[in-house]
Amino acid sequence: MEKRTDFFNLGTDELNDLYQELQEKYNEYKNQILKLDMSRGKPCPEQLELSMEMLDILNSDEQLKAMDGTDCRNYGGVDGISEAKELFSQMLGVSTKEIILGGNSSLNMMYDTLSRAMLLGVSEGELPWGKLPKVKFLCPSPGYDRHFAICELLHIEMITIDMNQDGPDMDTVELLISEDDSIKGIWCAPKYSNPDGITYSDEIVDRLACMKTKARDFRIFWDDAYTVHHLSDKPDQLKNILTACKTAGNPNRVYMFSSTSKITFPGSGIAMLASSEDNVNFIKKQFGIQTIGPDKINQLRHARFLQSLDNLNVHMKKQAAIIRPKFDLVLHHLEADLGGKNIAVWNKPNGGYFISLNTLDGCAKEVVSMAAKIGVTLTNAGATYPYGKDPRNRNIRIAPTFPSIHELKLAIEVLCVCVQLVSIKKILAGRI
Ligand code: PLP
């Protein structure tokens, strides 16, 4: 049989034969007692090694002084030390007055920002969102499961918005937010999005910045986690949303987030929040109650290790050199095993941490569960949608960075066998 034949064009006997063949393969993998994990976007040990030098950069009292003389061992500096603010404000395309540096997790900053909005409101004179009968968020999906988990925990109702190839379905977004003032925000992962690897077009950025919202205190939660995480020599370009919001006369509309989790160490990096000066000053007052200051020694280490935006980009090229072969391997196997069969589609990202695979409708859960039964862990099917419910039960997120090349090869082979088995079952069931 031609290897790349459209499964829908195969006769029932041919499909049954193929099913038997694939089932035998599945059983062979089962006998190997695998323990492989493609579920979370974690850097692999080789990537972490790239930043080990950073740990030896500071070793005496004199070296623990920031450029303005701040003793980084002591309390203070609630928004971060100058040299780190300088570097990361350049990375995000904002001024040093428009950024706050936090601890090691941007997710933590997003959680805190949303919690403060619920408890205290987003600016002077605005009601805390938690005092309103209902708060809703727009959730372009597939998206980042942990964004959705924050909403679920805080009882914020989520509305799923389709993702197109250039960003969220803006016609729906604009319609909903113009009519409903209980919609207070939207989650966006605008560059090399998790999991689709999509970068929002300039037009989408402008529409988000300009759109008329019924809620005065509407906010865009702009999670630019993968802003410097390119896999290609021709990186995607993302329009600066803060500038676009200012130009549109909505300077306070956006909170931008990012971190060095996948630049240096996820367990010991630096998170950042950027916004208008008004928003930053409002948040800083509240931040100063929450903490007397972040880990400035870590900020100093990062500033001295990464040095400049140019140097940071060189460092990111080393990261890409480690993970690009893993993305290539997954893409090669998807094409070789699933290409031309009309049972799955996937993206080829220019950056970020994920490959997003869409099976035939109704198949993702079974594929993930079949793979799990023989020791291959994938992100739960559904996790990329609000409430864990993928309406078409078809999206599977593949995280290729952490496993070794050998493990990854096995894991993707298993995944492709499972996709084919479940697809054949579905096609045959449709013929009864
Ligand atoms: N945002 C996105 C879109 C992510 O994919 C991830 C991690 O996978 C994070 C945030 C987590 O960031 P941090 O490590 O800074 O908390």
Folded structure, characterized:
With 432 residues, the protein is α/β, with parallel strands linked by helices. 41% of the residues lie in helices and 13% in strands. It has 13 helices and 13 strands. The chain has an eight-stranded mixed β-sheet, with helices on both faces. It has a three-stranded antiparallel β-sheet with strand order 10-11-13, with helices on one face. It has a two-stranded parallel sheet with strand order 1-12. The longest helix has 30 residues. It starts with 11 loop residues before the first helix and ends with a helix. The model has no long low-confidence stretch (mean pLDDT 96). The site of pyridoxal-5'-phosphate has 13 residues, from helix 4. The site of pyridoxal-5'-phosphate (PLP) has 13 residues, from helix 4.
